[in-house]
Design brief:
Length: 470
């Protein structure tokens, strides 16, 4: 009888898996969701320090040393996130060995040390070059009007196909990173995170021009009671959001990271509201936040990054102690052909996946209005129903980065959260109370038979171990 019950249990489990697979396009596999980290705590657990400028680097990221020339450049492998450092003077080089069919992106996040002096034009620049020193791409990010220490992210790309004749062949390429520095800046190295990503070629070539028209009207932001969330300290620990209203706290000098799953054909809209200071509409030095006349230009920066950490758009909000609101400009629906647009706000929306909302509050807000946290409300809308994306040949590295999963247990389960217009996709439960349960992740190309074989194999091993008394 015991064996019969065990057999029936196996049949039931396989049946459940088959039902799940049959109801989802492309098949489904089970993947364990990441365990909650300290960055996913409630807003009330914010650090009490006046300046929180640290960045949460990817856990377990291997270290790589930037070379002073190409001859000694260490190799980066797409799909692996690395940790390095960036000197105040000169360039550092890293090497890529690329095929002749794939597009490769490399994001570099430079992190100045806490307390460093920075100017408005301080920043970081990245080049991607071929073996002959010809540039495939270049990107620069600056500190900006807030003059506040914060992570700065730039991205380079070797794109195939492209409209030009450069950087089309297989071979050795180099990632070159350098500081953009004013003399008033503090000397010393900045920490650096490097994230190379491989995008495979399409199974069937499509149009090589950007969509001519798209709905650029900005809808009203969602309303309702906000859901408590705790923003992450880096891209790798970003808190997962879906459509809805989300409440957090942000301190002067702090940068918070959130991720929103956006499927093919969907549009993302986001607004950030910053609450009034304890002193109301007036500013003053010290912790009291009282007095009048306080004003910080570019106090709040709200930025949108795509799945490979490429900047899509950002906006800055000045602050005088009263509540302020800022919204990102409308971006087009996610479409492969967007990459051919001239505008970065359009070309950045080139693939589905986790899009990152990054919020920074300038350190000078603490000098003018006190170091207590300000209330932060994020209003996120994902418009449209997700569509089927282009067919890729092979897998991306890291795997699944251009796919959108199904909500895991506990994700977005709270008062004011609502689903997107037509289904926003989902995300792991790092936002409103996500647990360490299992997350269903959509994986195209994995058939029903593969899933069943895996389940049966695991079940058989477990059964044999139990029979053996292990």
């Amino acid at each position: 009888m015991g064996r019969r019950r065990t057999a029936w249990r196996r049949v039931a489990v396989v049946g459940a898996v088959l039902s799940a697979v049959a109801g989802a396009p492309g098949g489904l596999v089970l993947a364990a969701s990441p365990s909650p980290s300290s960055s996913s705590a409630s807003p009330s657990s914010s650090s009490s320090s006046a300046t929180t400028s640290s960045y949460a680097f990817a856990e377990g990221a291997p270290s790589v040393t930037g070379a002073v020339g190409t001859a000694d450049a260490e190799e980066l492998s797409p799909g692996t996130t690395y940790r390095s450092s960036l000197p105040s003077e000169g360039k550092v080089y890293y090497r890529l060995e690329l095929d002749g069919t794939s597009t490769v992106y490399v994001a570099a996040t430079a992190v100045p040390p806490a307390g460093a002096a920075v100017a408005t034009t301080d920043g970081v620049r990245v080049f991607l070059q071929d073996a002959d020193g010809r540039s495939c791409s270049t990107d620069t990010a600056g500190v900006g009007a807030g003059r506040s220490v914060r992570p700065l992210t730039v991205w380079g790309a070797r794109e195939l196909p492209s409209g030009g004749s450069l950087c089309q062949n297989a071979g050795t390429y180099y990632v070159v990173v350098e500081r953009v520095r004013r003399t008033v800046s503090s000397p010393g190295d900045w920490d650096l995170e490097l994230a190379p990503v491989l995008e495979p070629r399409l199974r069937q070539a499509g149009s090589t021009s950007a969509p001519e028209a798209w709905d650029s009207a900005t809808p009203a932001p969602p309303g309702g009671e906000p859901v408590a969330v705790r923003g992450g300290g880096g891209f790798g620990s970003a808190a997962a959001l879906e459509q809805g209203v989300w409440r957090d706290d942000v301190r002067p000098g702090q940068t918070l990271f959130y991720e929103v799953p956006v499927g093919w054909g969907q549009q993302l809209y986001a607004t950030a509201d910053v609450g009034s200071s304890a002193g109301g509409g007036g500013g003053g030095s010290g912790t009291g936040g009282s007095g009048g006349g306080g004003f910080v230009a570019g106090a709040v920066n709200l930025a949108l990054y795509n799945p490979v950490r490429g900047l899509v758009d950002d906006t800055s909000i000045s602050y005088n102690g009263s509540q302020k609101s800022g919204a990102l400009a409308a971006v087009p629906p996610v479409e492969y052909g967007n990459r051919y647009a001239v505008s970065g706000r359009v070309s950045g929306m080139r693939f589905a996946g986790a899009y990152y909302l990054v919020v920074h509050l300038a350190e000078r807000v603490g000098e003018e209005f006190g170091d207590g946290p300000l209330g932060l409300t994020l209003r996120v809308r994902v418009k449209g129903a997700a569509t089927v994306g282009p067919g890729y040949v092979g897998s991306s590295e890291p795997s699944g980065i251009f796919q959108v999963g199904v909500l895991g247990e506990g994700a977005g389960v709270a008062g004011g959260a609502s689903r997107g217009d037509g289904g926003a996709g989902g995300g792991a439960g790092g936002g409103a109370g996500g647990g360490a349960g299992m997350t269903l992740v959509a994986v195209g190309g994995i058939g029903v038979g593969t899933v069943v074989l895996v389940v049966l194999g695991v079940w058989t091993v477990v059964g044999r171990r139990r029979a053996a008394g292990v």
